[in-house]
Amino acid sequence: MDRRILLGVGALLTIALLTALVTLVKQGQARRLKERIATAGAPTLREVEAAGLPSIRLQTNESRPFVERILRFLRFNPDLPQEQKIPWPIVVVAGVLIGVFAGYNLIRFFGVYISIPLGILLGLGLIRFAFGYQHARYVDAVFRQIPDAIGLMVRAIRAGLPVGEAMRSVAAELAPPLRDEFARMLGDVAIGRPVDQALMRVYQRTQLPEFSFLAVTLGMQSQTGGNLAETLENLADIVRKRVELAKRANALAAEARMQAGILLVLPYLAALAMSQIQPFYVAQFSSPAGQKLAMIGLGFSIFGFLVIRWMIKRAGQD
Topology relative to the membrane, per the entry (predicted)? Predict the structure, then answer.
């Protein structure tokens, strides 16, 4: 009876997640298209009175409905379908099935009331990891192409082309995924949105500050004038150094991640060796109480590994 309850909860969770995602993907695209058409050409710059100069800070006041917050927690971005190498229905169904399977097998150790939350957390964690991993790979690929894109814009502007044509050359000559982002940005410009605001929308999708730098640079140039080619060349040099620094940080973080993996695996390798040398010391884990302790220890080990990875990631961002 308890297992039937768990399977029912898992099935309901699957239906709820699929319904929420399908609803957002189907209705959200139409809603965003209406907003783009309604706000085409509308300014989003906030004027300030200091020194009588207009502000170049770009701010947005977009609301976040409850479903969108859930998708943000799961790291699923419906605005970037191209980043999903694995279709999102497969990821959701696989995560829910794994969560149900894990909860079903944990009943004999922890009971129904603990196994159900553990299964739900495991399923959500796997879904979040799959979406986050694909998003991180996509953003990293875009990030590595930004210096080449800015350099191509500099060469086009020095050849006498306007900014719009320079961006079209980027959308035509660069490889995906940055080509797709520039093509989408040019689509926003085509319906009347200013270039700097269109670039800020790219920043909102990817959360890469380099696009905000480029947006502020173009916004400042449109308001104050100046040598745009030289400014973009300096920006390209800064972004290129940021890319190199990010590569060095990833190389240094790889050592810490390796150490975290060793710390996770080492106790179980030691237990396996002990079972071959002195089986008496690990024989108690064959009992129900021993198996329960082993599951608790595995859970704490995985939790510690995730905390270490989170600390490494935060240190790399800082």
Answer: Multi-pass membrane protein
